[in-house]
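User: Can you predict the 3D structure for this chain?
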Amino acid sequence: MIVLNVTYRCKPGMREAFLKSIENEGLDADSRLEPGNLGYDYYLPHGGNGDALLLVEHWRDEAALKAHAETPHYAKLKEQKPLYVLETVVERFETAQ
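Assistant: Here is the predicted structure, written as structure tokens:
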């Protein structure tokens, strides 16, 4: 299994708008429906950085992750990020299923 921790450092005051945009466009829901997706959840920091947003993704294997990167909703997220996000940091982990 592949686990991605994706931390978005949003523009000041734009985190909630970014998350709302993701939800309104159904980008999170569409990702959860993909074959090979085992988890796709957003988290807000508790008492920490008010501009950070964490996405934790779980994928069955490399093929599922590569297919995800080719979807229309992934492309839409890439289009929206510059409106809301200053920096994206991705941590990748591979685990036994």
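The two ends are 5 Å apart (CA to CA). The longest strand covers residues 85-94.
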